[in-house]
Amino acid sequence: MKVSIFDVAKKSGLSVVTVSRVLNGAESVRENNRQKVLEAIKELDYRPNAAARSLASGKTGIIGIIVTTLQDSFFDAVVKELNEVLAMHGYFLAISISAGIESDDSHYLIQEDRVDGLFLLSPMEEDNYIVELKRRGIPYVLIDNQKPENDTYSITIDNFKGGYMATSYLLALGHTSIAHLCGQEMFRSTRERRAGFLHALEEKGLTPFEIVHGDFEIGMGYETCKRWLNEGQLPTAVFAGDDNIALGVINALMEAGIRVPEQVAVIGYDDHYIASQLHPYLTTIRQPSDKIGLAAAEMLLKRISGKMKRGAGVKIDPELIVRESTSN
Q1: Are 260 and 306 contained in the same domain?
Q2: DSSP at 312
Q3: How far is CA 257 from the centre of its chain?
Q4: Are residues 166 and 278 both part of a single domain?
Q5: Cα(150)–Cα(152) distance, rounded to whole angstroms?
Q6: Is the N end or the C end of the chain the one with fewer CB atoms within 10 Å?
Q7: Which residue among 9, 30, 46 closes a domain?
Q8: Residue 200 located in a structural domain
Q9: Burial level of 121, CB count in 10 A (0-12/13-18/19+)?
Q10: Contacts of 5 (CB under 8 A, 6+ apart)
């Protein structure tokens, strides 16, 4: 049987009027009452009637997200968080996996009246998207965008702090010969994580064992480490720009009989699901997808409702997760 707004009112112990105000984002509702309604919506899995809401408010009840891939556990986690938060506010999340603004899926989502707002997750053509979204008057929020000048409506991770944190941890363990394997230069995260890495070394008067650029893939870490082994030179620690690279390094070391972390310590970035599933469990820098998704959803909902008059980006701190690959 379909859950109605009356069921939500009964469950929360509040009036239908109060529930309606919460669904429509009214500021007049007391915070404790708002939480009661949101909890009831979640428990009952209530979905407001999109057609009725659209007629009443002139809104579609749909928010779009454009992402280049979902074959990434970080992206996947952010999308899941967004979906849950938006559902609690009565919105449906429409996902487009697209390489650029000219693709059919992207073009469909950003047409007038298709969506009430749009997320761009790690966009590669953000300037083109922003121009078009502004032209059409569609509220948007960037997540993990590439250009600092577009941070006005964005949620980003402090990747400089993440790189600095990872390297400082290795230094504190006594390592002085540290390599950094990073992604392509086009990515802001690559540049910022590397900058944090270098700053931590410079504070100690040290230079890197080596900095290697490549793709965020297992093969990149594996081939780089194989080269070191063939050359007969290994760092005592590796800071990998993501968990895939780190796992590739560990694979090559274990094949060669090099013990991790006793002979070479390895730290990754992202805290992908697999990081806590394979031995040695991977020490890594976590990007908190729950905080990112919640902050992005709140920002876009404020933009849609007109409550956010002035843009201000949000920067979220990463977290160091210590596991077996750096210490016993």
Answers
A1: no
A2: -
A3: 35
A4: yes
A5: 6
A6: N
A7: 46
A8: yes
A9: buried
A10: 16, 19, 20, 23, 46, 48
Span 266-296, pLDDT tens digits: 999 999 888 889 899 999 999 999 999 999 9
Residue 110 resides in a domain: yes
Rounded (10°) CA dihedral 319, 321, 327, 328: 150
Strand partners, 316: 157
CA–CA distances in Å: residue 1 to residues 7, 9, 13, 32, 267:
11, 16, 20, 28, 50
Q: How many domains does the chain have?
A: 3
Alpha-carbon distance of 254 to 18, in angstroms, equals 60
Indicate the pLDDT class of residue 201, thresholds 50, 70 and 90: very high
Check whether 261 has a pLDDT greater than 70: yes
Sheet holding 314-316, edge to edge: 92-97, 62-67, 117-121, 140-143, 154-157, 314-316
Residue 116 clears pLDDT 80, i.e. is over it: yes
Indicate whether 324 belongs to any domain: no
Domain CATH for 203: 3.40.50.2300
Is there a domain that residue 221 lies in? yes
pTM of the model: 0.79
Read out DSSP for 15-57? -HHHHHHHHTT-TTS-HHHHHHHHHHHHHHT----HHHHHHHH
Q: What's the token pair of residue 93?
A: 């999340």
Alpha-carbon distances, residue 41 vs 18, 54, 56, 231 (angstroms)? 13, 19, 20, 61
The closest alpha carbon to 178, from 138, 228, 128, belongs to 228
Mean pLDDT of the region 251-262: 97
Contacts of 184 (CB under 8 A, 6+ apart): 190, 213, 214, 215
